[in-house]
Protein backbone atom coordinates (compact mmCIF):
# COMPACT_ATOMS: atom_id res chain seq x y z
CA UNK A 1 0.00 0.00 0.00
CA UNK A 2 2.86 2.33 0.84
CA UNK A 3 4.48 1.57 -2.52
CA UNK A 4 1.26 2.46 -4.34
CA UNK A 5 1.10 5.74 -2.42
CA UNK A 6 4.70 6.51 -3.27
CA UNK A 7 4.11 5.78 -6.95
CA UNK A 8 1.05 8.05 -6.88
CA UNK A 9 3.14 10.88 -5.42
CA UNK A 10 5.83 10.40 -8.05
CA UNK A 11 3.24 10.32 -10.84
CA UNK A 12 1.55 13.46 -9.49
CA UNK A 13 4.83 15.37 -9.33
CA UNK A 14 5.65 14.31 -12.90
CA UNK A 15 2.24 15.43 -14.14
CA UNK A 16 2.63 18.73 -12.31
CA UNK A 17 6.07 19.09 -13.91
CA UNK A 18 7.75 20.00 -10.65
CA UNK A 19 11.49 20.57 -10.59
CA UNK A 20 13.59 17.63 -9.34
CA UNK A 21 14.21 19.28 -5.95
CA UNK A 22 10.47 19.71 -5.23
CA UNK A 23 9.81 16.18 -6.46
CA UNK A 24 12.38 14.86 -3.98
CA UNK A 25 10.77 16.84 -1.13
CA UNK A 26 7.30 15.49 -2.03
CA UNK A 27 8.59 11.90 -2.18
CA UNK A 28 10.37 12.25 1.19
CA UNK A 29 7.24 13.74 2.75
CA UNK A 30 5.19 10.83 1.41
CA UNK A 31 7.70 8.35 2.85
CA UNK A 32 7.49 10.02 6.26
CA UNK A 33 3.69 10.16 6.28
CA UNK A 34 2.94 6.66 4.94
CA UNK A 35 3.60 4.61 8.14
CA UNK A 36 1.48 6.74 10.55
CA UNK A 37 -1.38 6.94 8.04
CA UNK A 38 -1.27 3.18 7.40
CA UNK A 39 -1.21 2.45 11.13
CA UNK A 40 -4.21 4.71 11.75
CA UNK A 41 -6.20 3.12 8.95
CA UNK A 42 -5.36 -0.38 10.16
CA UNK A 43 -6.37 0.43 13.76
CA UNK A 44 -9.66 1.96 12.61
CA UNK A 45 -10.59 -0.96 10.40
CA UNK A 46 -9.60 -3.56 13.01
CA UNK A 47 -11.70 -1.84 15.68
CA UNK A 48 -14.71 -1.64 13.42
CA UNK A 49 -14.63 -5.32 12.53
CA UNK A 50 -14.36 -6.45 16.17
CA UNK A 51 -17.57 -4.68 17.22
CA UNK A 52 -19.55 -5.09 13.98
CA UNK A 53 -21.31 -8.42 14.80
CA UNK A 54 -22.50 -7.18 18.19
CA UNK A 55 -23.72 -3.85 16.85
CA UNK A 56 -25.49 -5.53 13.95
CA UNK A 57 -27.18 -8.00 16.32
CA UNK A 58 -28.30 -5.25 18.70
CA UNK A 59 -29.70 -3.24 15.79
CA UNK A 60 -31.58 -6.23 14.37
CA UNK A 61 -33.06 -7.09 17.78
CA UNK A 62 -34.20 -3.47 18.16
CA UNK A 63 -35.75 -3.39 14.68
CA UNK A 64 -37.54 -6.69 15.25
CA UNK A 65 -38.78 -5.34 18.59
CA UNK A 66 -40.19 -2.24 16.88
CA UNK A 67 -42.02 -4.47 14.38
CA UNK A 68 -43.48 -6.58 17.19
CA UNK A 69 -44.61 -3.47 19.06
CA UNK A 70 -46.26 -2.03 15.94
CA UNK A 71 -48.12 -5.29 15.36
CA UNK A 72 -49.15 -5.43 19.03
CA UNK A 73 -50.77 -2.00 18.69
CA UNK A 74 -52.77 -3.23 15.68
CA UNK A 75 -53.90 -6.58 17.13
CA UNK A 76 -53.70 -6.06 20.90
CA UNK A 77 -50.83 -8.35 21.85
CA UNK A 78 -47.74 -10.25 20.81
CA UNK A 79 -47.93 -13.38 18.66
CA UNK A 80 -47.67 -16.70 20.49
CA UNK A 81 -45.27 -18.06 17.89
CA UNK A 82 -42.68 -20.54 19.09
CA UNK A 83 -39.89 -19.53 16.70
CA UNK A 84 -38.79 -16.79 14.35
CA UNK A 85 -39.79 -18.97 11.40
CA UNK A 86 -43.36 -19.06 12.73
CA UNK A 87 -43.24 -15.34 13.52
CA UNK A 88 -41.95 -14.23 10.11
CA UNK A 89 -45.22 -14.57 8.14
CA UNK A 90 -47.00 -12.45 10.74
CA UNK A 91 -44.53 -9.55 10.45
CA UNK A 92 -42.90 -9.57 7.03
CA UNK A 93 -44.21 -7.19 4.45
CA UNK A 94 -46.26 -5.01 6.76
CA UNK A 95 -44.11 -4.41 9.85
CA UNK A 96 -40.60 -5.37 8.74
CA UNK A 97 -39.08 -6.19 5.38
CA UNK A 98 -37.43 -9.41 6.53
CA UNK A 99 -37.31 -11.01 9.97
CA UNK A 100 -33.67 -11.67 10.93
CA UNK A 101 -33.11 -15.29 11.90
CA UNK A 102 -29.39 -15.25 12.74
CA UNK A 103 -27.22 -12.87 14.74
CA UNK A 104 -23.94 -11.23 13.73
CA UNK A 105 -22.06 -14.45 14.54
CA UNK A 106 -24.36 -16.47 12.24
CA UNK A 107 -26.13 -18.23 15.12
CA UNK A 108 -29.90 -18.59 15.49
CA UNK A 109 -31.81 -15.81 17.24
CA UNK A 110 -34.58 -16.73 19.71
CA UNK A 111 -38.10 -15.40 20.24
CA UNK A 112 -40.34 -16.05 23.23
CA UNK A 113 -43.55 -14.52 24.48
CA UNK A 114 -44.36 -14.35 28.18
CA UNK A 115 -48.06 -13.87 28.94
CA UNK A 116 -50.81 -12.97 26.51
CA UNK A 117 -52.85 -10.02 25.32
CA UNK A 118 -52.04 -6.54 26.58
CA UNK A 119 -50.18 -8.00 29.60
CA UNK A 120 -47.79 -10.06 27.48
CA UNK A 121 -44.11 -9.40 26.93
CA UNK A 122 -41.92 -10.44 24.04
CA UNK A 123 -38.29 -11.45 24.43
CA UNK A 124 -35.71 -11.60 21.65
CA UNK A 125 -32.24 -12.99 22.19
CA UNK A 126 -28.81 -13.81 20.88
CA UNK A 127 -26.30 -16.10 22.60
CA UNK A 128 -23.54 -13.60 21.81
CA UNK A 129 -20.05 -14.26 20.52
CA UNK A 130 -19.49 -17.45 22.52
CA UNK A 131 -22.72 -19.07 21.24
CA UNK A 132 -23.68 -20.42 24.70
CA UNK A 133 -26.88 -19.45 26.48
CA UNK A 134 -26.51 -18.66 30.18
CA UNK A 135 -30.17 -19.48 30.94
CA UNK A 136 -32.63 -21.94 29.34
CA UNK A 137 -35.44 -19.37 28.86
CA UNK A 138 -35.18 -15.75 27.78
CA UNK A 139 -37.55 -14.74 30.61
CA UNK A 140 -34.91 -15.98 33.07
CA UNK A 141 -32.66 -13.08 32.09
CA UNK A 142 -35.26 -10.67 33.44
CA UNK A 143 -36.05 -12.70 36.56
CA UNK A 144 -32.60 -13.93 37.65
CA UNK A 145 -29.72 -11.75 38.89
CA UNK A 146 -26.70 -10.99 36.73
CA UNK A 147 -24.21 -11.95 35.41
CA UNK A 148 -25.66 -13.18 32.15
CA UNK A 149 -22.43 -13.62 30.21
CA UNK A 150 -22.26 -12.08 26.75
CA UNK A 151 -25.88 -12.83 25.81
CA UNK A 152 -28.09 -10.09 24.35
CA UNK A 153 -31.77 -10.07 25.33
CA UNK A 154 -34.23 -7.41 24.18
CA UNK A 155 -37.74 -7.11 25.59
CA UNK A 156 -40.51 -4.55 25.24
CA UNK A 157 -38.40 -1.67 23.99
CA UNK A 158 -35.12 -2.07 25.87
CA UNK A 159 -32.24 -4.43 26.44
CA UNK A 160 -32.70 -6.66 29.47
CA UNK A 161 -29.07 -7.67 29.20
CA UNK A 162 -26.16 -7.11 26.88
CA UNK A 163 -22.43 -7.96 27.06
CA UNK A 164 -21.48 -4.66 28.72
CA UNK A 165 -23.78 -5.10 31.73
CA UNK A 166 -22.41 -4.59 35.18
CA UNK A 167 -22.21 -7.79 37.23
CA UNK A 168 -22.17 -5.83 40.49
CA UNK A 169 -25.60 -4.24 40.28
CA UNK A 170 -27.30 -6.95 38.21
CA UNK A 171 -29.07 -4.42 36.00
CA UNK A 172 -28.83 -3.83 32.30
CA UNK A 173 -27.35 -0.56 31.21
CA UNK A 174 -29.81 1.68 29.41
CA UNK A 175 -29.81 1.23 25.67
CA UNK A 176 -29.06 4.35 23.63
CA UNK A 177 -31.98 5.37 21.45
CA UNK A 178 -30.98 6.19 17.90
Task: Provide tags for this entry.
178 residues, alpha+beta, Glycoprotein, Type 4 Pilin, 2 domains, 4-stranded antiparallel β-sheet, 4 helices, 11% strand
Describe the structure.
The chain is α+β, with helices and mostly antiparallel strands. The protein has two domains: 2-44; 51-161, Glycoprotein, Type 4 Pilin. Helix content is 47%, strand content 11%. It has a four-stranded antiparallel sheet. A hairpin with a 2-residue loop joins strand 3 and strand 4 (158-161). Helix 1 (2-15) packs across helix 2. It is elongated. The two termini are 36 Å apart.
Largest sheet: 4 strands, antiparallel
CATH class of the largest domain: Alpha Beta
List the secondary-structure elements in sequence, H or E.
HHHEEHEE
Q: Strand percentage, roughly?
A: 5-15%
Order of strands across the main sheet? 1-2-3-4
Provide the structure class.
alpha+beta
Roughly how many Å apart are the termini?
A: 36 Å
Coarse morphology: elongated
Q: From the 3D coordinates, which CATH architecture of the largest domain would you assign?
A: 2-Layer Sandwich
Uncertain ranges: 166-178
Q: Give me the number of helical elements.
A: 4
Domain tally: 2
**Mean pLDDT, all residues:** 81
Portion of residues within helices: 40-55%
- Radius of gyration based on Cα positions: 25 Å
CATH topology of the largest domain: Glycoprotein, Type 4 Pilin
Count all strands and give the number: 4
Brief characterization of the structure:
The chain has 178 residues and is an alpha+beta fold. It folds into 2 domains: 2-44; 51-161, Glycoprotein, Type 4 Pilin, CATH 3.30.700. The chain is 47% helix and 11% strand.
